[in-house]
Amino acid sequence: MITEHNISEWAERYLKQELSEAELAQMNRALDADPQLYRHWAQTLDILRTFDTHAQRKEIRNLIGSVAANPSEWRESVPETKPVRVIPFGKYLRTVSAAAALVLFSSLGTMFFLNKKDNKTDQNTYRELRREINNIKHSQSKIIDSLNKNKPAETTEEEIAVYGGTGFALSNDGYIATNYHVVKDANAIYVQTRKGDMRAYKVAWEPNADIAILKLEDKSYRFGKTPLPYNIAKPAAGLGQRVFTIGYPKDEVVYNEGYVSCENGYDGDTRSYQLEMTANPGQSGSPVLDKYGSVIGLITGKQSNTTGTTFAVHADALIELVQSLPKSTGLYLPEHNRMNKIDRTEQVKKMRDYVFSIKVN
Amino acid sequence: MFYTDTELLTGLAAGNREAVAAIYKLYHTVLTKWILSRGGLEADAEDVFQEALVVLFEKARSTEFCLTCKLSTYLFAICKRLWFKKMERSATYYQLAEDDEGNEPGTYDEDLRLYLEKEEQYEQLALAMTQLGEPCAALLKAFYEEKKNMQEIAAAFHYTNAENAKTQKYKCLTRLRKIFFAAGVKIKN
Fold first, then answer.
1. How does pLDDT run across A48-62, given as a tens digit for each residue?
2. What is the model's pTM?
3. 3-state SS, residue B161
4. What ipTM was assigned to the predicted interfaces of this complex?
């Protein structure tokens, strides 16, 4: 029963919609009967509603305020656009047209120049993988120079290497195969063996296939105690053959693997393969081996606009070059493969002594 | 993320943080620019925008809610009116009424009037609360504004039990009512 005394309680329950049908009906009758009670009732409701509204507003204000305080949630990632400066067109018409004419002229000139150059070097998408060491050497020695300025910069003869590549043994007694482009301009060739850098000279080369055969000047040196672990495969490798290589893109030996992705090389060259394998400058001349450990080719270059496309000349070309040598040379290619039954890490371990970093002065 | 007006409004009504952030992202820059162009400060712009959002929030929550124009139009209209109220430039305000979008110009004014009236009403209530004195004012505040339950309140105000606190609260409310309405405050509903 609603009375003056419990009016607040009823108002609260009414707003929370807790009153039953019977209670509501009874309340309405009581309020209708007593105008004084009704006025107080309405006043109480007003106060409660005011409180409620305020509580709600406070809550949403807090939310809005916290969103406003975290602009990262809603501000565009683009920084505020600065007001655009308007340049009166008429005033600068002459300047603008002169600038436009200059731009037009220079862009046409550039296009003309580039076109002309393009015809000349059609093969600019093919990159040879010999390494230019000189740049690195220079920058290193510069750093060192600046570190010890007091000491006069010593120009030692350590700066022997200008280009770098990779080569691999063709026989145990000093014959090495590499790319022709690695050694073609060489005054002196150094092969990095276990004994240190050893001088070598060119025995034979075939510029079209991009291969060269070198021989160590030290006739008594042997690469390893056993005959070579790999052989040179005459038959061409098939499409999809898994291959691997080890070479010297840096001063340590680096292993890469991939597969034969095309039976013909760059621009349809039938004497080379296209491989899907990463190769870096310095890996020119690295042997490409199939899973049995037979050399199927030599890395020669890569396509410069892609990362994984590498080209390798057929081992067949190498065999031809060796066979063209006079008998007195005494170079006999390894016939037996001693690696076909061991796993990859063992294969690589066995081969390491027969693959060299080649530096050219 | 793209929201429709309706999604934004339901989100706002539900107190959804992402909806508020989305409204900020969409309209904050343009409305701030508008107020800055009228000689307002960055802080004024922020105040006006936040207040307009509260108006929009209440509009979205009201049971008979139905937005007859685009959310952007509504928000912009409310912001303009709030800004002119702030500046008390009745002349400009009048001018505005003429070149308005024409889309039920009455609703904005009505919504805003209701909003400001309630705001004023609360200020009066707060005034009455100070006259009420302690601990009554604190007790009512704790229950009706901070939404604490009776057990917490009984403990905080050292009543022996929740029932006791409740009785006390009703007494306080009755006294508040008397003070509030004795001051001659009239409430239109």
1. 888 888 888 888 888
2. 0.44
3. coil
4. 0.80
